[in-house]
Amino acid sequence: MSEHSLCQEFLSQISDYLDNNIDPLTCDELEKHLVDCPNCKIFVDTLKKTVYLYQQQEADINVPSEVRGRLFKVLSLDDLTH
Question: Which domain holds residue 30?
Answer without folding.
Answer: 3-81
